[in-house]
Amino acid sequence: MYSQKTKSACLILASASIAFMALGCKKPPVVTLACQASPPSVFAGETVTATATGGSLDTRKKINVIYGWSGDGATGTATTATVNTSTLAPGNYTVKASIKEGKAGKEGLKPGQAAECTASYTVKEFEPPTIGCTANPGTVKPGDSSTVAATGASPQGRPLTYSFSAAAGTISGNGNTATFSSTGAPTGPVGITCNVADDKNHTASANTSVTILAPYVPPIPHSEALSSISFERDAKRPTRVDNEAKAMLDAVALNLQNKPDAKLVIVGEATAKEKMPPKHVHKHAKVIDIAAQRAVNIKAYLVGEKGIDASRISVATGTADSAAAEEYLVPAGATFSTDVQGTTPVDESAVKPEERKPLPERHHKHVAKAN
Question: Model-level pTM greater than 0.90?
Answer without folding.
Answer: no
